[in-house]
Amino acid sequence: MVSENSAETRMLSPRALFAQRFTELYAAAGNPTLRRVAAAAETRMRAAQGARPGGASAQRISDWKAGRNVPARFESLLPVVLTLVELARKAGTPLTRQLAEPKE
Known about the structure:
XRE family transcriptional regulator
């Protein structure tokens, strides 16, 4: 894991830094399947907002992990991040502040 203030982190583009942190969070959650995360995030989103479309698909989550795309809206990312944080905590994986706090 790269520390927040390392030279390598400062040299990464915002897209690369997002992909790196998202991949770290995914690993901390035990590398669940993309479909599992997408389904859990969709359930979380529906509970919070009703039946509004716009959840993150398995393909979209894969693109975020690979750095091919970044979320267009925080609202589509938040349920995914919260799902991964919950899975990591259930697994007993310690999380850094950058990974545990959705707005980091």
